[in-house]
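INFO  loader      accepted 1 record
INFO  loader      residues=147
INFO  predictor   begin
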Amino acid sequence: MARLIAILLGLLFALSAAADDGARVVTAKGKFADVKDDVVAAIEQRGLVVNFVAHVGDMLERTGRDLGKTKRVYDQAEVIEFCSATVSRAMMEVDPQHLVYCPYTIAVYTLPGKPGVVYLAHRTYPQTAALKPVADLLQGVIADATK
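INFO  predictor   done
INFO  writer      dumping C-alpha cells
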C-alpha cells in the first residue's frame, strides 16, 4: 500500500511539473509598442523603475545570421526588468536564497504569422507565502497593462 501511495504521489508530482513549464503567458490584442508601453506604465504607476530592457528579438536576429540560422523566432521581443525594494526585501528576509528571484522580468513579444497578438510572460514562482507577493505583483502589472 505504501508503495502504491508513493507511485501515485510521484505521478501527481510529474503531472504538476509537466503542467507548469516555468512561465505564465497572457495574450493581448494590439501593437507591440503600445502593449510594451502599457507594461512600463503599469510598473511605473506602482512607483517602481524599469532597470533595463533587453532587446532579445534583435539579438537573436543578429546572432542568428552569424550562426547561419534563418528561422525567425519573434517579430519583436523585449524583456523588461524591474524590482520592488519592499517586495524583494520581504522575500529575502524570509530566505536569503530568494535573491535568485530578483530582479523581476516581464517578456513582451510577438510571433511571426500572428499579427495583432502580443504575448506577455513572466516566470512562475514556488507557491510559498514569501513569494506570493512577487507573483501577485507581476500578475497585477500584466493585468493592468492588458485592460
